[in-house]
Amino acid sequence: MSQAKFDKAVAIVQGLPKDGPIQPSTDEKLFFYANFKQATIGKVNTSRPGLLDFTGKAKWDAWKEVEGKSKEDAQKDYVEKLLEILKKADNEEAKKYIEEIEGAA
Protein backbone atom coordinates (compact mmCIF):
# COMPACT_ATOMS: atom_id res chain seq x y z
CA MET A 1 0.00 0.00 0.00
CA SER A 2 1.53 3.28 -1.04
CA GLN A 3 1.41 6.53 0.86
CA ALA A 4 -0.04 8.11 -2.29
CA LYS A 5 -3.03 5.72 -2.34
CA PHE A 6 -3.68 6.42 1.35
CA ASP A 7 -3.40 10.18 0.85
CA LYS A 8 -5.80 10.01 -2.12
CA ALA A 9 -8.29 7.92 -0.10
CA VAL A 10 -8.13 10.39 2.81
CA ALA A 11 -8.76 13.31 0.44
CA ILE A 12 -11.78 11.50 -1.02
CA VAL A 13 -13.30 10.61 2.37
CA GLN A 14 -12.76 14.12 3.73
CA GLY A 15 -14.24 15.64 0.56
CA LEU A 16 -17.42 13.56 0.35
CA PRO A 17 -20.40 15.94 0.34
CA LYS A 18 -22.83 15.50 3.24
CA ASP A 19 -25.73 15.06 0.83
CA GLY A 20 -23.87 13.27 -1.95
CA PRO A 21 -24.58 9.84 -3.40
CA ILE A 22 -21.80 8.16 -1.39
CA GLN A 23 -22.58 8.18 2.33
CA PRO A 24 -20.48 6.07 4.71
CA SER A 25 -22.41 4.81 7.74
CA THR A 26 -21.57 6.05 11.23
CA ASP A 27 -19.62 2.83 11.88
CA GLU A 28 -17.70 3.29 8.63
CA LYS A 29 -16.89 6.89 9.56
CA LEU A 30 -15.56 5.69 12.92
CA PHE A 31 -13.51 3.04 11.09
CA PHE A 32 -11.99 5.74 8.86
CA TYR A 33 -11.32 8.01 11.84
CA ALA A 34 -9.64 5.28 13.89
CA ASN A 35 -7.44 4.01 11.08
CA PHE A 36 -6.52 7.54 10.00
CA LYS A 37 -5.42 8.39 13.55
CA GLN A 38 -3.53 5.10 13.89
CA ALA A 39 -1.79 5.64 10.54
CA THR A 40 -0.86 9.27 11.18
CA ILE A 41 -0.34 9.45 14.96
CA GLY A 42 -0.10 5.88 16.23
CA LYS A 43 -1.00 5.03 19.81
CA VAL A 44 -3.86 6.97 21.42
CA ASN A 45 -2.25 10.05 22.98
CA THR A 46 -5.20 11.69 24.74
CA SER A 47 -7.39 10.82 27.69
CA ARG A 48 -10.90 9.52 27.08
CA PRO A 49 -13.44 12.35 26.69
CA GLY A 50 -15.97 13.08 29.42
CA LEU A 51 -19.30 11.45 30.09
CA LEU A 52 -21.41 13.79 27.96
CA ASP A 53 -19.13 13.90 24.93
CA PHE A 54 -20.74 10.95 23.15
CA THR A 55 -19.13 11.61 19.77
CA GLY A 56 -15.71 12.17 21.31
CA LYS A 57 -15.97 8.95 23.32
CA ALA A 58 -17.06 6.94 20.26
CA LYS A 59 -14.12 8.29 18.25
CA TRP A 60 -11.65 7.70 21.10
CA ASP A 61 -12.95 4.14 21.67
CA ALA A 62 -12.70 3.35 17.93
CA TRP A 63 -9.10 4.57 17.86
CA LYS A 64 -8.26 2.65 21.03
CA GLU A 65 -9.61 -0.55 19.40
CA VAL A 66 -7.01 -0.38 16.61
CA GLU A 67 -4.13 0.52 18.92
CA GLY A 68 -1.14 -1.66 18.09
CA LYS A 69 -2.03 -1.91 14.39
CA SER A 70 0.95 -0.89 12.25
CA LYS A 71 0.87 2.33 10.25
CA GLU A 72 0.99 0.28 7.04
CA ASP A 73 -1.90 -1.96 8.08
CA ALA A 74 -4.00 1.04 9.14
CA GLN A 75 -3.39 2.69 5.76
CA LYS A 76 -4.19 -0.54 3.90
CA ASP A 77 -7.41 -1.11 5.87
CA TYR A 78 -8.49 2.50 5.30
CA VAL A 79 -8.02 2.26 1.52
CA GLU A 80 -9.62 -1.19 1.28
CA LYS A 81 -12.69 -0.05 3.25
CA LEU A 82 -13.14 2.98 0.99
CA LEU A 83 -12.82 0.84 -2.15
CA GLU A 84 -15.42 -1.57 -0.72
CA ILE A 85 -17.86 1.32 -0.11
CA LEU A 86 -17.23 2.79 -3.56
CA LYS A 87 -17.75 -0.56 -5.30
CA LYS A 88 -21.08 -0.98 -3.48
CA ALA A 89 -22.16 2.54 -4.50
CA ASP A 90 -21.65 1.59 -8.15
CA ASN A 91 -22.20 5.03 -9.68
CA GLU A 92 -20.13 7.31 -11.91
CA GLU A 93 -18.71 9.32 -9.01
CA ALA A 94 -17.65 6.13 -7.22
CA LYS A 95 -16.02 4.77 -10.39
CA LYS A 96 -14.07 8.03 -10.78
CA TYR A 97 -12.82 7.78 -7.18
CA ILE A 98 -11.79 4.14 -7.65
CA GLU A 99 -9.75 5.11 -10.72
CA GLU A 100 -8.09 7.95 -8.77
CA ILE A 101 -7.09 5.62 -5.92
CA GLU A 102 -5.89 2.82 -8.18
CA GLY A 103 -3.98 5.33 -10.29
CA ALA A 104 -2.11 6.78 -7.30
CA ALA A 105 1.51 5.64 -7.28
UniProtKB/TrEMBL annotation:
Pfam family name, one: ACBP
InterPro entries: Acyl-CoA-binding_prot_CS (IPR022408), Acyl-CoA-binding_protein (IPR000582), Acyl-CoA-binding_sf (IPR035984), FERM/acyl-CoA-bd_prot_sf (IPR014352)
Gene3D superfamilies reported in the protein's UniProt record: 1.20.80.10
Entry keyword set: Lipid-binding
One GO term of the biological process aspect: fatty acid metabolic process
Family of this protein: Belongs to the ACBP family.
Protein name listed in UniProt: ACB domain-containing protein
Annotated organism of origin: Collybiopsis confluens
Phylogenetic classification of the source organism: Eukaryota, Fungi, Dikarya, Basidiomycota, Agaricomycotina
